[in-house]
Design goal:
Blueprint: E1 8-10, H1 16-29, E2 35-39, H2 48-58, E3 62-69, H3 70-73, H4 78-94, E4 99-103, H5 113-122, H6 124-129, E5 134-139, H7 148-162, E6 166-171, H8 177-190, E7 195-200, H9 205-213, H10 223-227, H11 229-245, E8 249-252, H12 259-279
Parallel strand pairs: 1-2, 1-8, 2-3, 3-4, 4-5, 5-6, 6-7, 7-8
């Protein structure tokens, strides 16, 4: 039986109306019974609950994973910030959503995702109340092997996993397939039952130009990847095939709003699925 890859999609929108338009387009195009999307938290003014309500109201067959950024949701102090996380988790549970992707956000802060998870793991009353709710966390496998940065990143992941509140691990975008594979193997050894998701771009001339001029913090894209759309697509296919071989799910971190976006996405997914089938490894 041939492989078929069912990815998750990040939603790109400015307001509820745009969210609904993009979600309708995705639902119309996807062949699976459930449309799996992520709602990002990129600004302090984001009305996450209103956005999630809009997505869930549109259809019952939408599987939403909200993001929660400690940078953008920080309150006056650590205690208030943790209480805000608990309130958000309670609000999600009331909406039959049992997870969120908890991220620290760029920059350093005392109350980051590691600290929040540490505090929540010690809160027995909240753990009883929110017994079905779990968090997903981020991990970047693309730091140089043996570097202090790589060691710190994995140590942070180990700390996040200790309290038993983590269900999934979301891999940062990067272009080095060998580092991705090593990272997948390490995370599988650390947490065999964890769900794993790997971010990928849909390459375009505009994207490559933007990443050359102003790369995102923590995103490592090689000169080879940035050299052409064609080469970037080849690397993306290899990334997605690598993820699927390790039982992980590709996460499309580019807009899929136009017909040409969808056509490119389907083409790359089909090529990755073919590569998995040819390798004979699942």
């Amino acid at each position: 039986m041939s492989t078929r890859i069912a990815p998750r999609y990040e939603l790109f929108f400015k307001d509820v109306k745009c969210l609904e338009t993009e979600l309708r387009a995705l639902r119309r195009r996807t062949s699976s019974a459930t449309t799996r999307v992520n709602v990002p938290n990129k600004d302090k003014k984001d009305d996450l609950i209103a956005w999630i309500d809009a997505a869930r109201t549109l259809s019952d067959d939408v599987d939403v994973v909200p993001h929660y950024s400690m940078k953008n949701q920080y309150r006056r102090d650590a205690n208030q910030s943790v209480e805000a996380v608990k309130a958000f988790a309670d609000a999600m549970t009331a909406r039959n959503i049992d997870r969120c992707l908890l991220v620290s956000g760029s920059g350093s802060r005392k109350c980051d995702s590691v600290e929040v998870l540490r505090r929540l793991a010690m809160d027995r009353e909240w753990k009883r109340r929110a017994s079905t709710f779990r968090f997903d966390v981020a991990y970047n496998p693309h730091f140089d092997e043996g570097s202090d940065a790589a060691a710190r990143e994995f140590e942070r992941l180990e700390k996040k996993m200790r309290g038993g509140l983590v269900r999934g691990v979301w891999f940062q975008i990067g272009s080095d397939v060998e580092k991705l594979e090593r990272g997948l193997e390490r995370v599988r050894d650390l947490a065999p039952d964890a769900e794993i998701y790997g971010s990928v771009f849909l390459p375009s001339k505009q994207l490559l130009a933007r990443m050359k001029f102003r790369p995102w913090a923590g995103v490592f894209l090689s000169d080879e990847y940035l050299s052409s759309v064609e080469r970037a697509e080849e690397i993306t296919i290899a990334q997605m095939a690598c993820l699927v071989r390790h039982g992980a799910t590709p996460f499309i971190e580019s807009p899929v709003t136009k017909d040409e976006d969808w056509a490119q996405c389907e083409r790359l997914l089909a090529a990755a699925a073919k590569r998995v089938d040819e390798s004979g490894k699942l």
